[in-house]
Every structure is written in C-alpha cells, then in structure tokens.
Specification:
This is HDIG domain-containing protein. InterPro entries: HD/PDEase_dom, HD_domain, HD_GYP_dom, HDIG_dom. The protein contains 15 helices and 5 strands. The chain has 348 residues and is an alpha+beta fold.
C-alpha cells in the first residue's frame, strides 16, 4: 500500500463507509485486525447510534452496539486499553460476542461522539508501535468526521449556499479542492492556536476562495491538458471575480481578503494586486499555503499528484518567496505528524 494513502484518502473521502473500507484493508495488512466497527451518536440523538463496519457480521454488530450504549461507548476504559473476553469492567463483558479481544478508541468531535472498535477473534496484545498506528488511524477518522460536520454547517449559510451549489454543478473537482483547502487551513490554524472565531472565518473563506471560477469558461477551467499563456491569463482573473461576486453579500468583509489575495506571494510576484510580505494578511497566507499543498498532492488529467516527499521539498524551496516561511515550517510539522505512519509501518 502506498505510504501516503491515509494522508489523502480521508481528505478526499466524502463517506465514512468508504473510509472504513480503506481503514479495514490497512489495519488487516499492518496489525492483522480483520474486524472493525465504528459507532457514532449526535448529542441531540436519543436513539441507537449509527454503525459503520468492516468485515463484521450483523449479529456481532448488534451485540457490540448494545454493549457500546450500555457501557457509555467504553468511556471508562482508557483509549487503546484492551478489553478481553474474560474481563468484567463495570459490567462490560465480551461474553456474548464472538471476539476475544477488543481495542476501543474514543471519538469526540464537535457534537459527535462514539467509539472505534478494533476486534480480534483470538487473544491479541498490540505492541506500542501497533498501538501508535491505531491512534494515528483514529485521528484520521476524527478528521473525516470534522470534515463532514463542517460541510453540513457551511451549507446552512443561506447567502453562500446558492453560489456554492452553482459551482458544484459547474465543476465538482473545484468544490472538492475547496473543501480540502478548508480542511488543511484548519489543521494549520489549530496548530498556530487561532481562536474559534478565527478558525470559523478561516474555514468559510477557504471554502469560498475559488468561487470566482464560476465565471471562467468551461473549456478553459476543465481543459484536459496544460493551459496556454492566454488561457492562464483568464484563470488568473478568478480571485478578483470572486471578490466582485461576494462583496455585496452580508457579513463577508472579513472573507474578501482571502478570496481576492490567495494567489499573492511573499516576494510580490503574485496576483491580482502584487502584494508582498506583511501586506498579505496572515489568514490569507494560511489559505495560500493550503491551496498550493492540495494542488500539488491532487491528480489532474495532465499530471499525477506529487509524492508528499517531493511536496515537502517544494514547500522548503519556496519558503519566504511564495509562502510565509514560519507557516511552511509549521505545516511541515503537520505533514510529519500525519506521515508518522510511514515510519511505523514501513520501517523507514
């Protein structure tokens, strides 16, 4: 399996079901776990939790679902501590299931909570390295839930919904790119320690950063090949067009700089206004970096995605020219954290 699969698979997925399949295949190969289930509940729910499984019989799913509810989603068991068939912890027991060992990992994202269960039909003790693999995978599931949550929240904003749905009908690739950029921007914003209000602004602005592509002719925007200089000149108009599309909507003044200036560069060679250095607002610099990262790691008709190692080199090379050097260093830390799985699983 490619060593960067999970860095992009969760970001590109719109479905917990799809990601459970990827997760199941990966954990089967790396730690020999052949049965996985995820139970999720919203704070507002009063019914049984939603169940997402990999290679799990319905009877086992039902038994584990009942056990998860009765045990408050294994809240009293620390993350990654094994529960075995002969254990009885506060009334929690695996006796009615077909599993001998279960490793629970807790989920709590926004208003969603639950548990990810890695299930073994024999006695199994994971090594510290294997547990670290599991925790990183659990982090990816956390991030997928975050992504789905903020997609739902964003579409509740009526003033943006019409424009964004129009872009979705025109070019679904650009919409997926906008979601990815928003997600990477939030990872970096959280790393920096932005306030909740700043993170919310960053999220919405990143989702709308390419809205100006609505006005770019389809034969240019979706051309299955490299653009000519003239066509690229047309594409370069999209930040200013996006600004014009949004400027008269309510409560968008803080969003407009990111929409207009996300292609500006630290060295002043960007567009549309040739800003440089500190003239470029801090949140704009975050989205610019996230935008470039997703572009480099996404496959286009005319080129394959770059490997994460090559992307790292590109970011380092362009630090303090195209990108804010401080932000590049922090983003490289995020990449290294996400790619820890590579070292653990491949021994590199």
């Amino acid at each position: 399996m490619q060593n960067s699969v999970f860095f992009k698979s969760v970001i590109n997925s719109n479905s917990i079901f799809d990601s459970m399949g990827l997760l199941g295949h990966f954990l089967k190969e790396t730690i020999g776990c052949e049965h996985i289930c995820l139970f999720l509940m919203e704070d507002s729910q009063r019914q049984e939790p939603a169940a997402y499984t990999y290679n799990m019989l319905q009877v086992d799913t039902n038994q584990l679902q009942q056990l998860a509810v009765e045990a408050d989603f294994f809240e009293r068991i620390p993350d990654g501590r094994p529960l075995r068939q002969d254990d009885k912890i506060d009334g929690i027991s695996l006796e009615k299931t077909s599993f001998h060992t279960i490793y629970p990992f807790h989920i709590k994202r926004n208003s969603t909570y639950g548990t990810l269960l890695l299930c073994f039909q024999t006695q199994r003790s994971l090594t510290p390295e294997e547990l670290q693999i599991c925790r990183i995978n659990k982090l990816h599931m956390d991030q997928l839930i975050d992504k789905i949550y903020f997609r739902k929240q964003f579409l509740k904003e009526q003033s943006y919904e019409s424009l964004f749905n129009t872009l979705r009908m025109k070019d679904s690739f650009t919409v997926d790119h906008c979601y990815n950029v928003a997600f990477y921007s939030l990872l970096l914003g959280e790393k920096i320690g932005l306030s909740p209000s700043e993170l919310e602004l960053l999220k919405v602005a990143a989702l709308l950063h390419d809205i100006g592509k609505l006005a770019i002719p389809d034969h240019i925007l979706m051309k299955p090949g490299r653009l000519t200089d003239e066509e690229f000149g047309v594409i370069r108009q999209h930040p200013a067009i996006g600004y014009e599309l949004l400027k008269d909507l309510p409560e968008v003044q803080d969003i407009l700089p990111i929409v207009r200036w996300h292609h500006e560069r630290i060295d002043g060679r960007g567009y549309p206004d040739g800003l440089k250095g500190d003239e470029i607002p801090f949140l704009v610099r975050i989205v610019s970096l996230a935008d470039a990262f997703d572009a480099m790691t996404s496959t286009r008709v005319y080129r394959s995605s770059l490997h994460v190692d090559e992307v790292r080199k590109q970011l380092i090379t362009n630090a303090n020219t195209q990108f804010d050097e401080q932000l590049v260093n922090l983003f490289l830390d995020i990449i290294d954290e996400q790619m820890t799985m590579r070292t653990l699983t491949l021994g590199e």
